[in-house]
Structure prediction request, 449 residues.
Amino acid sequence: MIDSLLLTDQFEWGCATSAFQIEGATSADGKLPSIWDDFCRQPGRIKDASSGQTACDHVRLYRDDVALMSELGFRHYRFSISWPRVMDANGRVNPAGMDFYKRLLDELARHGITPNATLFHWDLPAHLAGGWLNRDTAYRFADYAQLVARELGDRLPRVATLNEPWCSAFLGHDLGVFAPGGRNRAEALTAAHHLMLAHGLGVQAWRAIQPDISVGIVLNPELCDPATDSTADRSAARMAEMERNDCFLNPLFGREWPQELIDQMGERQSDRLQGDLTICAQPLDFIGLNYYTRSVAQAPMTTEESQRGYAFVSPDGRTAQLTDIGWEIYPQGLTRVVNNLTRQWPLPPIWITENGAADNAGIDRGLCDDDLRCAYLTAHLEQVAELLRQGHDIRGYYVWSLLDNFEWAHGYSQRFGIVHVDFDTQTRTPKKSARMLQSLIGTSANPSH
Ligand code: IFM
Prediction:
């Protein structure tokens, strides 16, 4: 039973995807390679040795996908624009690539679905020398933001600059599991800095062309509990939250980067220039929060953990319920993390821009009974209702994801979609969770039912 607070006209129900994970057509129509195209080609990087080459073939099938969203009752769609598809190596528009998004926006408009675009969801153009380790990339991002603002801006009511910059910076440059696969903590901090600079420059560039359109950023803040009440475990948990939250939220609100983190990581001082903080701290119209799970930290034991200042305790399937990817199901963490953040930073209106579960249930006699996902979504929606009851300004909820898709280093081995995709035939089959959301959204469109 979903709380009536979620069933008002004002509350946005949406579904989310990202370009590299669904589009395919990675070299069609002048699209340039991204760092993820390169990364997928490196042996051992992707669990099933797959790539984004075809993914959900969305560039070809986008009309069907939009029709499906519409059938399921979604009136809001969050997607990302592929930078290397729409911009050539000289910084000019690639008309054939840009045309795809124009056609997508036409199709969404035809179905009365409001677009919610993200400019950067990890598929950085591979030709940008040094990637996020090079300060210049932040300025190239501003050029790209301006190009999108010119070409599509009047049709995009809401735009986020970056999706989950922690992942680009730390999974990509410290833990080495995301493109470009670096393993250097000081470089991860440099990348984080340049990403936040890109955000600020991107907001300025966007507003210079489209001053009236809502601009924000999407983060995946961490809720990290200490494994025990010991001082060592508590300070490990704090260190993890500092890396994942303070490192990104501080600059957004004009606060200095956590010195403890800079000291620990030994970032190059030359990367942080006077005035950068002012650029990063552009006023935000909204913030998107992605929530999946919590983590539990303990004091570091190995040398590598000591360099990080914390170690994560793997969730134990005997004491906690896990999704198929091994993440703990911890719905109350959503309420806790929003409360933690609002206590520490003056957040603007919030959208839950991603929430969902890996549930690899397959098709049986034409049906996909993803009961784990149904229970997961229901429990998390109850927490969204709780946040509304507590008075938080939560404006909408986007399920991750519309389609099963390319789950980064896991390839196609983890399914997050509410719609099953048969990757051999590209057949889409709405799962039980899709029908569950369809009926909820239907109720919200007709509250008297
Ligand atoms: O698939 C990803 C998405 O690209 C970003 N947020 C988390 C999802 C699940 O891992």
Remarks:
- The domain at 4-445 is CATH 3.20.20.80 (TIM Barrel).
